[in-house]
Structures are given as structure tokens and as C-alpha cells.
Specification:
Layout (H helix, E strand, L loop, with lengths): L1 H4 L8 E3 L5 E3 L1 E2 L10 H10 L12 H20 L6 E6 L2 H9 L6 E4 L8 H4 L4 E3 L5 H14 L4 E5 L7 E2 L2 H10 L3 E5 L11 H4 L3 E5 L10 E6 H6 L10 E5 L2 E4 L13 H15 L3 H20 L4 E3 L8 E2 L2 E6 L4 H12 L1 E2 L1 E3 L4 H6 L5 E5 L6 H17 L15
Parallel strand pairs: 3-17, 5-6, 5-7, 7-9, 9-10
Antiparallel strand pairs: 1-2, 4-11, 8-15, 10-11, 12-13, 14-16, 16-19, 18-19
Bound molecules: 4'-deoxy-4'-aminopyridoxal-5'-phosphate.
């Protein structure tokens, strides 16, 4: 089934090379944005002729659009095995989802210092509580327990999988700990959801966020799924049409979630795209997916580590699990130059920089690194191509440096 699902857009993309000619693109940047699955493209194409205003019109196209939009919540809820009191709110992306939740949390949030900025700044900008992760998962959990017990907290916000190293924390255990300390747990699943099946019901996760564009659906839509009570009690995230039951010159009677936090005309195509991706991923055997990915990720790690001067990064010495994301450095080469070389000479796309996780990069003692991330379209031939390209560069020596030409540096 993995092979059947590997039909992602961009598979045949020709990329010009500096040495002349073109080569098909080898995408090692799934963690930034994953190309759309064929099932997603199909569903959008079928819906496109019917897009019309949702919840507002009695016309045929409006009814189709409304049905698709509401059915999309069902696909997401089924994909995540959401509990009955958990609602699906459509947002723009994970960042939006986490900012929305931050506006609803009735108390302090505890967060680790290894997070993507999207799961860090929405909490810390309100003066909330940061725990410095230790070198082992076991000790990090002990520090989290100490922080949660020392002073009441409403929420523990953790990443499902690190966007830098791919490492996965034991989420069920963290959910238990948060609950024992009287807090709830949010999981930033931007990187976990594309790689692992998550059951909210079984894991005890209260809130979860992810982005469509990392889950094989295009940009512009994301979800926040979570327990209704906080969402219903909070002020609407945006004020406007669709978020209300009734308005008079005296005030507004706000609608309950999810409509309460979805003011304005919603992104129907974005929601339908996410739903199509969820349905497609739900059809894959999770064990098969994990095994397929582990095989490729191990091949990548082993191949890179065998090259002199290449080091892969990790946060914890005892992390039990990781998804297909490998961050690495090449001694003597600036990460930006390695990324530019891989693109220019080999048509390989990787991410370089600080991965929107500046505190984590600082902990690792780095200004920048490289990140290769794999997904459903990745093959073992792609892995070998990347490993061979890095080995070729190292063999040439550090005098080979490519300047970045995209004007970006170290985001
Ligand atoms: N959390 C994690 C772990 C991520 O990797 C990312 C994207 N790199 C985000 C949050 C933010 O996602 P978005 O930009 O789609 O809001």
C-alpha cells in the first residue's frame, strides 16, 4: 500500500543542473512541505467546479461545498480517532492552530526548549513556563513532572516529533503525567501526523494540531482538534460572520466551537484537501508505513554516518523512536553551501539553517545544520543518490563552496 500511495506530485519534476541538462527532482524536504498525493489532487479537481459560499446559500453548489466542508471534519476526526467531546476546527496551519489554542487556555502552559517556534512563541510571549530539556528523555520527563507539580499549570505543550531530529517523545506517558498533575496536553503533530497513526482516544491527548501542507495536501489549511469546553468558553479567535448565532447593536451571541473560531468565509478546498489526505493515509497499514520509513531512514543515517566528517544530530541519547527526519552537519562545509551544491549539481532538495527552532540549535551548539526528510515518495535509490552526492563533496574537499543565490540565510 505504501507504493500505491507514493504517487505524489513532483515525482517527475525536471530540475536544471549547473553542469547542463536536467535531472528529476529528489525531494528530501517533506518536513517543510509534502507534495500533494494523487488522491488529494483528484478530490480538489472534483470539488473545484462546485466551490461556493459555505453555510450561507441554498444553491446547489453551496450545498455541495457545505457538505464537503462538514464531512471533512469527520475525516479528520476518524483519522485521529477523536473522542466524542473533541471538535475539529479548521485553521490556516499549525501556527494558526497553536495561536488559537493559546487564546483559549485558562492558565499557564509548560513547554520545552526544543520546540519549533510555532509551539514556543505562542506560549512564551505570554510569559509562560519553559523547561530546559535534559540530555535524556527520562531526565527530561522528570524535569517536566517537577515543573508541573511545582505550580499549577493548565497545559503541557509538546512536539509529537522534533522537526529537527525527528525524535518522538512517549506521548501517552506525557499525557498521563499532565493529567495526574491536573493539566491537559497539546501535541504539535505537524511532523508526527504524516508519519504515525495517532489515536487521541487511546493516547489521552487533549489537543492536537497539524498543517495540511505537511500531510500531502497543499498550503492554506490546518487543524486544531481538541476538547470542546475550553474552546467554547474562550472569546472567538476572530470576530466576524459565521462565528455568531445572533448579533444586535447591543452585542453578539457567539456560536459554539468549531464555528466560534472560524469567522469569515472558510477555506473549503483546503479542508477537503486535508480530508482527502487523511482518508488516503488512513487506508495504509500503519505498521507497514512505519516499517517502510524505518528502513529508508536507517539507510540514510547509516549512509551519512559512514562519510568522514558527517555527523547526525540528536537531542536525547535514549530517545526510543524517531520519524524519517535526519539532521546532519558536514565538517568543513557551511550547511548553506552543501544545500546549494546538492541542488545545483544533483537536483536534490534539502533544508538548511536553524529550522525555526533557534533555541534547539543553540543547545546543539550550532549556527545551522542540514536536514533531509523523507516521505511517501522517497525510494532507496533517492537515499543512495543523496548519500553519494554528500560523499562526492567531502571527497573533493572544502574548497568547493557554493554561494546561496536565493537571498535567504539561516531562517
Ligand atoms: N510545528 C512543527 C513541528 C513544524 O515542523 C512546523 C513547520 N515547520 C510547524 C509547527 C509550523 O507549521 P506551519 O508553518 O504550517 O504553521
Amino acid at each position: 500500500t505504501c507504493a500505491a500511495l507514493a504517487r505524489v506530485s513532483g515525482d517527475e519534476l525536471p530540475v536544471p543542473l549547473v553542469q547542463g541538462g536536467t535531472r528529476t527532482y529528489a525531494n528530501f524536504d517533506y518536513a517543510a512541505s509534502a507534495p500533494a498525493l494523487a488522491q488529494v489532487t483528484d478530490r480538489i479537481q472534483r470539488l473545484l467546479p462546485y466551490y461556493a459560499s459555505v453555510h450561507r446559500g441554498a444553491g446547489y453548489a453551496s450545498r455541495i461545498s457545505t457538505e464537503c466542508y462538514e464531512a471533512a471534519r469527520g475525516s479528520v476526526a476518524r483519522f485521529l480517532d477523536a473522542a466524542d467531546d473533541q471538535v475539529v476546527v479548521f485553521t490556516r496551519n499549525t501556527t494558526d492552530s497553536l495561536n488559537l489554542l493559546a487564546s483559549c487556555v485558562p492558565g499557564d502552559t509548560v513547554v520545552l526548549d526544543i520546540e519549533h517556534h510555532a509551539n514556543f512563541l505562542p506560549w512564551t510571549r505570554h510569559g509562560r513556563r519553559v523547561v530546559r530539556a535534559a540530555d535524556t528523555v527520562a531526565e527530561t520527563i522528570r524535569l517536566l513532572v517537577a515543573e508541573l507539580c511545582s505550580k499549577p499549570a493548565a497545559l503541557l505543550a509538546v512536539t509529537g516529533a522534533s522537526n529537527v531530529t525527528g525524535e518522538v517523545l512517549p506521548l501517552e506517558r506525557l499525557a498521563d503525567i499532565a493529567h495526574q498533575c491536573g493539566a491537559r496536553i497539546l501535541v504539535d503533530a505537524a511532523q508526527l501526523a504524516p508519519h504515525r497513526r495517532i489515536s487521541l482516544r487511546e493516547s489521552g491527548i487533549d489537543y492536537l494540531a497539524f498543517s495540511g501542507h505537511k500531510l500531502y495536501a497543499p498550503f492554506g489549511s490546518g487543524v486544531l482538534v481538541g476538547r470542546r469546553d475550553w474552546l467554547d468558553r474562550a472569546e472567538p479567535y476572530l470576530a466576524g460572520g459565521g462565528a455568531v448565532r445572533a448579533v444586535s447593536t447591543e452585542g453578539a451571541e457567539w456560536a459554539p466551537a468549531p464555528q466560534r473560531h472560524e469567522a469569515g468565509s472558510p477555506n473549503v478546498l483546503g479542508a477537503a484537501a486535508i480530508a482527502a489526505a487523511c482518508d488516503a493515509l488512513a487506508a495504509i497499514d500503519p505498521d507497514e508505513l512505519a516499517a517502510h520509513e524505518r528502513l529508508l531512514a536507517d539507510r540514510l543515517r547509516d549512509g551519512l554516518c559512514a562519510i568522514p566528517g558527517v555527523e547526525t544530530l540528536r537531542i536525547w541519547s535514549d530517545s526510543p523512536d524517531s520519524v524519517g527526519i535526519v539532521a546532519f552537519t558536514v565538517a568543513g562545509f557551511a550547511p548553506g553551501h552543501v544545500a546549494a551544491y546538492l541542488s545545483a549539481e544533483h537536483a536534490i532538495g534539502v533544508r538548511d539553517g536553524r529550522f525555526c527552532a533557534h533555541p534547539l540549535l543553540a543547545r546543539l551548539g550550532l549556527d545551522a545544520a542540514l536536514r533531509a526528510s523523507i516521505g511517501l515518495g522517497t525510494t532507496s535509490a533517492d537515499i543512495d543518490r543523496l548519500v553519494d552526492a554528500v560523499a562526492t563533496l567531502v571527497h573533493r574537499g572544502p574548497s568547493w563552496n557554493y554561494a546561496r543565490t536565493d537571498g535567504l540565510w539561516n531562517p
